[in-house]
Design a protein that fits this description.
Elements lengths: L1 H6 L6 E5 L2 E5 L7 E4 L2 H22 L22 H14 L3 H12 L1
Antiparallel strand pairs: 1-2, 2-3
Length: about 110
């Protein structure tokens, strides 16, 4: 059954400590959040919220996003940039003695 497939997916959960307990959020399921006085209670509550979120979306015919960890990325990215930026990146790469691809990867790694 398709619903069972989605209910068995493992979605990353983020827990935020609060002054009176914890807030739990599943970013992959917009609006899916819960709270609990203890971490254990927050974990139980977010699991219930996840199931209800998925069941409601399924019954309403809405798209159910896959967990971010389930999405496969190729590692390849194609984009258009202004010519002036392309020139600046190429000049900087040449000064560093690396390819433009290596230079861009280094810049993105520092920013990420």
């Amino acid at each position: 059954m398709v619903l069972d497939y989605y209910l068995n997916l493992k979605y990353p959960i983020i827990f935020y400590p609060e002054s009176e307990g914890y807030t739990a959020v599943i970013k992959d399921l917009p609006g899916c959040m819960s709270v609990g006085e203890t971490l254990s209670e927050a974990m139980e509550n977010i699991e219930e919220a996840r199931e209800l979120w998925i069941e409601t979306a399924y019954e309403c015919g809405h798209e159910i996003p896959l967990p971010a960890s389930e999405i496969e990325y190729s590692g390849s990215l194609s984009l258009q940039i202004p010519k002036s930026l392309h020139r600046n990146l190429a000049d900087n790469a040449e000064r560093e003695g690396v390819s433009i691809e290596q230079y861009i990867l280094a810049v993105l790694s520092k920013a990420g």
